Q: What sequence folds into this?
């Protein structure tokens, strides 16, 4: 059972990146998938999630700029990041769990599987 986040890299301010979170060893169909990010020395921050019935939630810093989507057949959840800012620089993680309450998911509660992170750097 594994989640793998990928797609990170270096992007200029105002640019875009698309992250992927791909599951292996289990189906994501019944799971909420969340995206989180962490900057060294700061707490992990929940930034978005998509529930099994495709309800989507976003934290205020990314609302209107990031879009989450899922493809259950590909066992993958995507995070499209547009109009990126230097403060989006972080290691990004994805996680899977059964909770569909954003307040819980954003804190990482009830997330059973976590992937290794992918570094995103926004800099000119």
A:
């Amino acid at each position: 059972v594994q989640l793998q986040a990928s797609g990170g890299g270096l992007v200029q301010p105002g640019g875009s990146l698309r992250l992927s979170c791909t599951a292996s060893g289990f189906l994501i169909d019944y799971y909420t998938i969340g995206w989180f990010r962490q900057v060294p020395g700061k707490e992990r921050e929940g930034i978005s999630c998509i529930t099994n019935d495709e309800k989507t939630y976003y934290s205020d810093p990314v609302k209107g700029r990031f879009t989450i989507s899922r493809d259950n057949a590909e066992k993958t959840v995507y995070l499209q990041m547009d109009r990126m800012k230097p403060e989006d620089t972080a290691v990004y993680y994805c996680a899977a769990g059964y909770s569909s309450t954003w307040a819980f998911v954003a804190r990482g509660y009830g997330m059973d599987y976590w992937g290794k992170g992918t570094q995103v750097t926004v800099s000119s």
Observations:
- DSSP finds one helix and eleven strands in the chain.
- The two ends are 37 Å apart (CA to CA).
- Helices lie at 102-105.
